[in-house]
From TrEMBL:
It comes from Physeter macrocephalus (Sperm whale). InterPro entries: Peptidase_S1_Elastase_sf, Peptidase_S1_PA, Peptidase_S1_PA_chymotrypsin, Peptidase_S1A, Trypsin_dom, TRYPSIN_HIS, TRYPSIN_SER. GO terms for biological process: acute inflammatory response to antigenic stimulus; phagocytosis; proteolysis. Residues 51-268 form the Peptidase S1 domain. This is Neutrophil elastase. Residues 15-24 have a biased composition (Polar residues). PROSITE patterns: TRYPSIN_DOM (PS50240), TRYPSIN_HIS (PS00134), TRYPSIN_SER (PS00135). One of its GO terms (molecular function) is serine-type endopeptidase activity. The gene is ELANE. GO terms for cellular component: cytoplasm; extracellular space. Residues 1-24 are annotated as: Disordered. Keywords: Disulfide bond, Glycoprotein, Hydrolase, Protease, Serine protease, Signal. SMART domains: Tryp_SPc.
């Protein structure tokens, strides 16, 4: 069982429900949440290849992708946004002792010992009005204890400009080490999945995605990871409804564009000593 303090098994799994499930730590006392949690349990049988319905990423194809771990176990995703900061979901770190969290960069297969990894402790956690009942503002910035070395396996992601959102129909990629299905084990190898931005059944404060015509999507353990659209981190995996890959309810992400100015202000203020280490920002809205 996952070693996350305060975490509980996802309740209501397999039961169709429109209630949101955060995809990491669960709050059993919260009436608004029928199911929550994404603590990933390593050690299950290695089944095929999905987030749900996805495929294994080419190793280090997404060099900004980070794994948040406690006692060597993955529990959430995160994204390197500056050499000493990762972005994740607030519900991933809410209530956790940040001292127990490790940020692992440069990973691909979590079951292997990989020379490409760089591991850091968390020095400080910044949140911005996270509401665990309404699942609003589900965003956190983790300041690392050190500065990542940038190389082919570890790189800083690009963020959108403030309010530079994504519209209906945009193609994006979701990724993570989360479970391969509501009742399936997590994936040791990073998975990726093509998804499409939708606005139906989505709050204006979230970015939402579906895989049209398929039971595919994010699942427990994917929380905190990035949604990449047009080469930019537009979303942070936040919650699901109706189980993983329901085919009906879109997956919900915190909208990074709504927090771009806040993110930049934190990085500017607490960046490493080599001067401001702002993430490379795509001012031209370039697509690649
Ligand atoms: C995902 O999208 C990319 C770019 O749009 C495309 O090249 C690729 O074939 C898609 N992969 C799958 C499995 O659909």
């Amino acid at each position: 069982m996952g070693a996350i303090r305060g975490a509980c098994a996802p309740k209501g799994q397999g039961r169709p429900s429109s209630r949101p499930s955060m995809i990491q730590s669960c709050r059993p006392s919260s009436p608004a949440l029928a199911a929550v949690l994404l603590a990933v349990l390593l050690g299950g049988p290695a089944l095929a290849s999905e987030i749900v319905g996805g495929r294994p990423a080419r190793p280090h194809a997404w060099p900004f992708m980070a794994s948040l771990q406690r006692r060597g176990r993955h529990f959430c995703g995160a994204t390197l946004i500056a050499r000493n900061f990762v972005l994740s979901a607030a519900h991933c770190v809410n209530g956790l002792h940040s001292r127990s969290v490790r940020v692992v960069l440069g990973a691909h297969n979590l079951r292997r010992r990989e020379q490409t990894r760089q591991t850091f402790r968390v020095q400080q956690v910044f949140e911005n009005g996270f509401n665990p009942l309404r699942l609003k503002n589900d965003i956190a910035i983790l300041q690392l204890s050190g500065t990542a070395t940038i190389n082919t396996n570890v790189q800083v992601a690009r963020l959108p400009a403030q309010d530079q959102g994504v519209g209906e129909g945009v193609q994006c990629v979701a990724m993570g080490w989360g479970q391969l299905g509501t009742n399936r084990p997590p994936s040791p190898v990073l998975q990726q999945l093509n998804v499409t931005v939708v606005t139906a059944l989505c709050r204006p404060t979230n970015v939402c995605t579906l895989v049209p015509g398929q039971h595919a999507g994010i699942c427990f353990g994917d929380s905190g990871g990035p949604l990449i659209c047009n080469g930019l981190v537009h979303g942070i995996d936040s919650f699901i409804r109706g189980g993983c890959g329901s085919g009906t309810f879109p997956d919900s992400f915190a909208s990074v564009a709504k927090f771009a100015d806040w993110i930049n202000s934190i990085i500017r203020r607490y960046g490493d000593d080599d001067g401001p280490s702002l993430h490379p920002r795509d001012t031209a809205g370039r697509t690649y």
